[in-house]
Write a structure and sequence with these properties.
By secondary structure, the protein is α/β, with parallel strands linked by helices. Helix content is about 45%, strand content about 10%. The protein contains 13 helices and seven strands. The chain has helices spanning about 15-30, 45, 60-70, 105-115, 125-130, 150-155, 170-180, 185, 210-225, 235-245, 250, 255-275, 285-310, and strands at about 1-5, 30-35, 80, 95-100, 135-140, 160-165, 195-200. A seven-stranded mixed β-sheet has the order 3-4-2-5-1-6-7, sandwiched between helices. Helix 1 packs across helix 12 (about 255-275) and helix 3 runs parallel beside helix 4 (about 105-115). It is globular. The termini are far apart.
Amino acid sequence: MEKTAVVSQKGGPGKTTTSVNLAAGMALAGYRVVVLDIEPQAQAGAALGVRLAQNTINMSLGLKLQQAAQGVPTSLRDIIIDRSDLLSQRKSNGVLHLLASEQATMANAQHILHAAGVEKAHVLRGMLEELEDDYDFAVFDTPPAVQSLNGVALAAADYAITLCAPKGATIEGAVAMRSTVQHVKTRTNGQADPKYLGALLNMAHPLSEWNNEEIDVRNQMVDTGLQPFVTEIREDGRISGSYQKGVPAVIGYARAACGKRYARFLEEVIARMDAPEAEWPIALSADEQLDEAEQAAAARVPSQNVTEASRA
């Protein structure tokens, strides 16, 4: 099982929609996938149509984390929620499962893990060992900022992806999170060493709509070594609408532009898992893309002149 944490130091860049669409896209491709909602706000579960209530609180991953952190023997198998029915409209043979969150129990787990410190950093990795052969991929949706739940997620992860949006503040957060990922090995005494896979630009706009801030973000993603994915996710109301419906856009709009972008993104993710960083194709900077667009426009002008002359 390949385990990927989607992490962000700041809230708002689309971490949850990225997590569930990445996982759902993998399941659509025929893989066995489990989503871990490690977020007190339980947004990944909501994005997959699951909201735990008081009478189902015993299904919370947060409760299991509390038990494990306190040394109580526990298993994840009895809280797995099957959401593979979401794939039926696309006739996929994949598996899409969820380990759901609930606010109070996950917040309590965070307090317990924070108090325990590095000693319990590997609690989630240990819990997942029993599921190792059950899934091809696990995707972790994590809370914003660097805190105990993020530390536990990264200590359990094999890979990490971070996010940027066309806002300057997200660059600083992504750079800080990449540094955090790179220091996991040291902080866990070599027991965990997640591989940084790159940064996804989310809520992007077509070139004709770029403002100065988006141009600056795109340039900095390259210049600061964030290894941006070639695929970007464009701002699209269908993505947020899919969240409200509990059906990821990659499933509900598989043939639309937003669904196709998520499908290309997951292909890049899987390719980067198998290749050294030096071989990854990365997105062009904004300046490079603007230069290419200018050259393409200039190349079209002579051909248009010839056409007009021939008509005359």
